[in-house]
Amino acid sequence: MSTNARDMPRREGAFEREPARRVFAAELRECRYQFKDGEDEKSPTFALLPSGQRSNRIFLVGTLTEKTRQGEQNMFYRGRVVDPTGTFFVMAGSYQPEAMQQLAKIEPPQFVAVIGKPNLYQKPDQSWLVSVRVESITVVDKETRDLWVLDTAKHTLDRVDAFAKEPTPDILKAKEQYPTIDPSLFRKIAYDALAQIKM
Amino acid sequence: MDYSEAANRISRKFAQGGQTPDVKKIESKLKRLVDEFGVQPSEAERSVTSELAKEYNLPAPGSGGSSGAGGSGGGTQEKKIAEGVPGEWVTIEGKIVALSAPASASIAQSGIIADESGAIRFVVWAKSNAPAMAEGSWYRIESAVVDEYKGVANLKVHSGTTIKEIAEDRSLIPTPIPIKDLHPGIGGVRAKFVQEWEANHERMLQSGLLGDETGTIKFVIWKEPGKEKLVPGAVYNIFYAQVDEFNGRLSLNLNAATILQEEGEIAVNGGETSFTGAIVHIAPGSGIIKRCPVEGCNRALSRQNYCPVHEIQPKFVYDLRIKGWLDDGERTHNILIQRDVVEALTGISLEKAQEIAENNPLGMDEVFLQMRDAVLGRYITCHGREIDGRLLVNKCDKVAFASGDHTALLNRAGGAPS
Known about the structure:
The structure holds two protein chains of two kinds. By secondary structure, chain A is an alpha+beta fold.
């Protein structure tokens, strides 16, 4: 019994938080391209995963194997978090006081869950470093780690499958930026990661 | 300037709408504006026209009602009720399905008039000298105006409107609308009374939640002679309820509605939904909080025990909650977890949290930190109702490792590319 003229526009949800992508260390390590979405100073920065998805934030679970305190005035912590495929380099500085305090309290080795933002750096010797700026790090149990491996394997396989089908703009960009990487490699990496979980 | 020509022009505009303005009076007003106040003739004509429009409670000709039935020509159109668009002059035939108490002395009658196409609220101005209409009778209303009041279409009966009772006795059986498809105006639903709320106003008879297969909606009945309460759990056919909108949310005002109880049963969809993911953020304001003790308030207090409405409240009440984000890798959902679920999820009871807050040097912050460390980064499934983009969680399950998923993924990863 309605006419369009009487319908009211409904309010739309204003803010959408960037989801935390699931990615294995072996794939994140290959990132070489990051970009801003928009011209604004506050526009989010994305690292482009070789499997063709942008990521502003990632969620990872692994073993914190070592942590070091660095710097005097601008103190910050570095840590290494190991998953079945490789190593994530994580860091928390004075701009992330909460994350730094969390990291400072954890004595390796421990299973940890990390939420953070990937950053790409080129070192003076031209080699690349992908590090994760920690927003939050907490100690978790082995079951959470195993769940993360399943979750990340699933998302990795989803991306690899999508890559072979309809190309999205991000997939096209990945093909352009990573011409030498064949994403089916990540299928094998996912398999190896899954195989390491003891039944 | 030829005042009489301009005055006739103005008068003709209103004559099309059924009015009979005094041409002499218009002429003298124009004269006064131009001669005495040095107003431009065109501006004077515009000003007198809009003054008259105001007097008749009409949208100013040429300003509103772009669809052409207004002052610009064409007279009024005979329409079905659902076709009326704000700003239009209309002629309709319909049945008075409800009369409600006028809200002000300048209103003679108000209520709801319906035909097969739908229903609309109407208002008869006291100034219009219209004959009183009786509930249940059919009328032909010529040259009334559809306008908008509080975002809802409304039919205005003014002094230029003619009302004739007509001999009609068609029975109108409105089709109920699914709750999720309701929009501001008049609407009918077939719904179950799922939850009764405490009346928070002395004039309120009853309020609560009605639900059908598609969703739920708040309803209100205001105190009025002859109004009866609904029975919780019963199913009702409700016709001609007023659908109001406030802050983007809809509610039903049942005072003018026709309500028939029936025997049936409805499987209500309470907006129940669930999400699975990892908790990726615990927001400030989580943990143990203090609430305002004033009845019906329950707002969270600031650190200084300050309620935004009731100021300093030293006799606050403790509560637990977790506000955060649950992330499945594709989308992030805003979640709000209530006390008993927080207790089950974190293993920290309200008593224990209170003890920590009162004895630990970090106070309430210590509860926040302990809860954060207990849930952040964990995989959980949250069940609850989603309201305004936030999931109000009433049940939480920790996700357990399923070897079936593991095997399936191994097969998928090891199999040929699909």
